[in-house]
Amino acid sequence: ETHPGLSIFGVMIDDLLGRPPTALPPPSGAAAVTFLPFPSGTITAIDGWDAIRDHEHVVACNLHVGIGDTVADTVGSFDRPAILVVSADRPEEVDAITEELSTGLVVSTS
Predict the structure, then answer these.
(1) In a 3-state reduction of DSSP, which class is residue 58?
(2) Mean pLDDT of all residues in 33-60
(3) E strands, 1-110, where?
C-alpha cells in the first residue's frame, strides 16, 4: 500500500534464487493493520462496523464473528475477531482514523 509497484513475493523469490536485490519504489503514504479486540461472551450487537467498512481510508477489513457467536479471550492470532487496514498520506492520519473507527465500534455481549 505504501510502496506502489512493489511485489513482496517477487522480492522473496528473487532472494531465494540468489538474484541481486533491486531498489524499492519510494514510499507514497502510510498504512497500518489493527486487530480489534472484542469483549468475551456471546455477541448480542455490533454497532459501527458499517462505518468502518465504508470509510474511504479503509483498504481492507474483515469481521470474523457475528450476532450469536461466542467470543473467548484472545490468546493467539486465530482468536482475533476483526481486522482493520487503514491508509493515508501520513502516519499521524492513519493513527487518528484508526482510533476514530476503533472507538466507534461498539460490540455488546452477554
Answers:
(1) strand
(2) 95
(3) 30-36, 41-47, 58-63, 70-71, 82-88, 106-109
